[in-house]
Write a structure and sequence with these properties.
Elements: E1 8-12, H1 20-33, E2 37-40, H2 45-48, H3 58-69, E3 73-77, H4 85-90, H5 117-134, E4 140-144, H6 159-173, H7 176-183, H8 210-236, E5 244-245, E6 247-248, H9 257-260, E7 268-271, H10 281-292, E8 298-303, H11 321-331, E9 334-340, H12 366-378, E10 393-396, H13 399-405, H14 416-429, E11 434-437
Parallel strand pairs: 1-2, 1-9, 2-3, 3-4, 4-5, 6-7, 7-8, 8-9, 10-11
Helix pairs in contact: 5-8
């Protein structure tokens, strides 16, 4: 397994939208900013496979070699996060279906059902092609699988999901009588006589069966994990010794991080704290939670230099606030800091999202100067890579408890994360460091639980 020897510092890089002249200028600016690591090809599917029968690796070949020649390490994505229009046109059945029965269409991203056999086949085919091409490239240090699973599509109510849900339930409960007992289906005349009678918990007249809803949450997390495993296995046919990861999202509700972590060599998350928060405890909490998934150093795969397109009101970061947050992540156990993205987009849905390089002259930008300062400081901190984090307190955390607490059939407005943040804020105010532990983990070594 390739071993990290220095702090990773860089950005999500999307050069497909730029000319080669701009990309060559990027190499010079990356050196100036201390960038040594970039993630590429996250949304590269249509560039690599412009139609079903054609693979075109010319641009990515050139880019991989260029980055390596400039001593920039590569986190290479398999490119499956945004299926191309030709695939959707041929197989619209792979698109996700909303709770009200509407099938979503092409024109955004993550427009796939995670259980779709069509999507899975094309995604694994692409993964194999990318791995076969680049597994032995000297610049490759990390495999980046897909992107932000369940960020936009955390539910799907298509016919295939219903059939897979029935199969998943049969594997879990073995007998329909066992399911009826676990779900308390005697109440409200909900008993089932066969697996085929079971629906997904879609639109219903009133409160849904809470056990059914909870199993559906487990099912969707498992199906996305299964998709990740299939993509990973496709890469592993050609690649040995390169670590695998995907970018999680910290306090994201729909992926059971403790269940996913064993499948990753490195855990990471995308950090977007609100500048209006004087003390960003949610960011601290998510850093600690991400580190706790493997009890090892983690990566920040995305953070914003300034405004984000999805927050309606953006507060300007004060001088050195970005630097402060970057060092805060290191103090919580991060071994690398990445931004989204390197250069601000020419257009598209994230054209108002900030970047390390703005639309104007980077040298007149406080943001770029601060990014360069961080990068050059990080280059002197290689000795902290791999440092073990020792926590004072263990806080028991469980995604399934989170899901169960917030089902609709209860007389309460209690929110799991609100309670967690309140507890965490009190501990941090006392300067106590925190690990999060799954209920099945040992509590040995923690002075306070």
């Amino acid at each position: 397994m390739k071993t990290q020897r220095q702090l990773y510092y860089g950005a999500d890089y999307n050069p497909e939208q730029w000319s080669k002249e701009v990309i060559l200028e990027d190499m010079r600016l990356m050196k100036e900013a201390g960038v040594n690591y970039v993630s590429i090809n996250i949304f590269g599917w249509v560039n690599l496979q412009p139609d079903e029968s054609t693979y075109d690796f010319d641009f990515l070949d050139w880019l991989m070699d260029l980055l390596y020649e400039n001593n920039i390490m590569i986190d290479l994505a398999n490119g499956t996060a945004s299926p191309p229009a030709w695939l959707v046109q041929k197989h619209p059945e792979m698109l996700p279906v909303t709770i009200h029965g509407n099938r979503l269409v092409h024109g955004s991203r993550q427009h796939y059902c995670p259980t779709s056999p069509i999507y899975r086949q094309y995604a694994t085919d692409l993964s194999e092609a990318v791995a076969n091409r680049y597994a032995n490239h000297p610049g490759l240090v990390m495999w980046h699988i897909n992107n932000e699973y369940t960020c936009h599509i955390h539910e799907c109510y298509c016919d295939h999901c219903r059939k897979r849900f029935q199969t998943w339930l049969a594997e879990k409960y073995q007998t329909i009588a066992g399911l009826n007992d676990a779900w308390s289906t005697k109440f409200w005349s909900q008993s089932y006589g066969s697996w085929e009678e079971i629906f997904l918990p879609e639109a219903m007249p009133t409160f849904k069966n809470p056990a059914q809803q909870l199993d559906y949450r487990r099912f969707l997390s498992d199906m996305n994990l299964e998709l990740y495993q299939l993509e990973k296995a496709a890469i592993a046919k050609y690649s040995q010794g390169i670590p695998y990861m995907t970018n999680l999202m910290g306090l994201h509700k729909y992926v059971d991080g403790f269940k996913w972590a064993p499948e990753m060599d490195v855990v990471s998350w995308n950090s977007y704290p609100n500048p209006f928060e004087k003390i960003p405890y949610p960011q601290f909490l998510a850093n600690d939670l991400t580190r706790s998934l493997k009890k090892k150093p983690f990566l920040i795969m995305e953070q914003a230099t300034s405004a984000v397109n999805w927050r309606q009101i953006n507060g300007a970061k004060t001088p050195n606030q970005l630097r402060l947050w970057s060092y805060e992540a290191l103090a919580h156990g991060a071994d690398g800091i990445m931004f989204f993205q390197w250069r601000q987009s020419r257009g598209g849905a994230e054209k108002f999202h900030s970047a390390m390089v703005p639309h104007g002259d980077p040298h007149s930008s406080r943001i770029f100067r601060e990014c360069a300062q961080i990068g050059n400081e990080f280059s002197q901190l290689s000795e902290i890579v791999g440092t073990r984090f020792l926590a004072d307190v263990a806080v028991v955390f469980d995604w399934e408890n989170w899901w169960a607490l917030e089902l609709d059939a209860k007389p309460s407005t209690l929110k799991y994360i609100h309670q967690l943040r309140s507890l965490y804020g009190a501990l941090r105010a006392l300067n106590l460091s925190v690990d999060f532990v799954h209920p099945s983990e040992s509590l040995d070594g923690y002075p306070l639980v």
